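Sequence only, no structure available. Ideas?
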Amino acid sequence: EFKRTRGNIISMREHAELLHSVRNDINEYK
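Reply:
I predicted one. Tokens follow.
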């Protein structure tokens, strides 16, 4: 149970970093 929660937190963090990098790419493209 704990491992699954920890995995969700890691995937959420990776997803947030992915969105952040995509947003930076869009800002640089303008």
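The radius of gyration is 13 Å.
Hope that gets you unstuck.
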